[in-house]
Amino acid sequence: MTNPKIYIYSILTCLNIFLILSTLSLTINSVNAQHHGAPPPIATIGDRNIKMNFVTEPTTIVAGQNAQLKMSLVDAKSGEKIQHVTYRITIIKDNQTKVSEFLHSHTGDLTIASKNTNSSTVNVVGTFDDLSNAIIPDPSGTIEITGPLFSEAGLYKANIEITTIDNDKTDLSIPLKYQFDINVKKIRG
């Protein structure tokens, strides 16, 4: 006859291992949102399928030109925008970081206006929000980046990590990660 304490301990150990593996598997499957050029895949968080929208205006940016980057998250099932999104945006060209900043949108929509200036540095212009620990848009819904962000022709990478959704302080245990290519063309002349 086996000892009942050992039997109960064995069952509890097996249940703990099962729960840990189940949670790990769910976490890995629910936040797989890597993107490299094609439309980004849908990420699953809880019972929602979340789609990332990202567009540049103009579609083809010319070196030295002002441009806008527009992004949002949408629940693919309901079509509703996800609110209170914190984006960590890093724009890189030739392995050099041009800008890296945490930006937050209470409405979920984020517009970044890149204003090309003769400055030697790239600056993010906005209001720092203590609650979200990020820069938030002005009343028009825009965050401005000034300086030589897209001043050279070539391929830029926009790495975007989503760190919060639904509430300013609801951090995702594993951020959603996306990467978008931004091609900047030469000035015609």
What features would you describe in this structure?
The chain has 189 residues and is mainly beta. It has a single domain, classed as Immunoglobulin-like (Sandwich), CATH 2.60.40.1940. It has 1 helix and 13 strands; from the N terminus they run H-E-E-E-E-E-E-E-E-E-E-E-E-E. The strands form 3 sheets. A 6-stranded mixed β-sheet has the order 1-2-4-7-11-8, with no helix packed on it. The longest helix is centred in the N-terminal third of the chain and has 27 residues, at 4-30. The relative contact order is 0.19. Residues 14-36 have low confidence and may be disordered.
Core attributes:
mainly beta; elongated; 189 residues; 14% helix; 47% strand; Immunoglobulin-like; 1 helix; 6-stranded mixed β-sheet
What layout of secondary structure does this protein have?
Layout: H1 4-30, E1 43-45, E2 48-57, E3 61-62, E4 67-75, E5 85-93, E6 96-105, E7 110-115, E8 123-125, E9 127-129, E10 134-136, E11 142-146, E12 154-164, E13 171-185
Parallel strand pairs: 3-13, 7-11
Antiparallel strand pairs: 1-2, 2-4, 4-7, 5-6, 5-12, 8-11, 9-10, 12-13
